[in-house]
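Appendix C: a fully annotated inverse folding record. The material below is reproduced so that readers can follow the format used throughout the book. The structure is listed first as tokens, followed by the designed sequence.
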């Protein structure tokens, strides 16, 4: 295993009312949880294949009885006032632990595949940053090979996040590459792109 690569996987505990709230408005909370569990399964399967140390970062509590095994995933809990704080603290901890390249993903992207993750780590061997834009204006992946804080002053879960992060890259004079855009599954409209989900 490449001990210089760290993959951070941010997930929510699949609790009705707490996940996929926009989907839940149209489909109901139980169905929304069902879809989220499918997304978790895809994320787990693809991240398992990647050559990196993997930290699984739970939103509410660490679940010892799920399908993410401790042989593969180091289980941790997220802390912080907002998404930016939580992401920032894990990047800081990762770099302080000696990792050279850190990539973070969520669990909302049905067509994220392990080759996307491998490509991101490859890019970080020569660039400061890598980002995968999502169709909703956010991003599904962010990677850094130096510890710069890109997580302050963002309107999280809005369509300006990707654009604002690119601005930060430029402000910090980072070299970076942009991956192909993917769909973050948030709405019934998004679901139409994944009839087999």
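Designed amino acids, in order:
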């Amino acid at each position: 295993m490449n001990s210089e690569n760290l993959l951070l996987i941010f997930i929510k505990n699949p609790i009705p009312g707490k996940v996929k709230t926009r989907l839940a408005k149209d489909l109901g909370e139980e169905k929304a949880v069902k879809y989220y569990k499918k997304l978790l399964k895809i994320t787990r399967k693809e991240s398992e294949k990647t050559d990196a140390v993997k930290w699984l970062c739970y939103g509410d509590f660490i679940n010892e009885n799920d399908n993410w095994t401790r042989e593969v995933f180091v289980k941790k809990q997220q802390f912080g006032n907002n998404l930016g704080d939580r992401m920032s603290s894990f990047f800081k901890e990762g770099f302080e632990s000696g990792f050279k390249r850190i990539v973070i993903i969520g669990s909302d992207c049905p067509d994220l595949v392990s080759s996307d993750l491998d490509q991101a780590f490859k890019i970080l061997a020569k660039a400061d940053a890598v980002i995968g834009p999502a169709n909703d204006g956010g991003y599904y992946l962010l990677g850094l090979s130096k510890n710069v804080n890109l997580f302050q002053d963002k309107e999280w879960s809005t369509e300006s996040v990707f654009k604002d992060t690119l601005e930060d890259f430029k402000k910090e004079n980072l070299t970076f590459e942009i991956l192909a855009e993917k769909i973050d599954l948030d709405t019934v409209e998004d679901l139409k792109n994944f009839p087999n989900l």
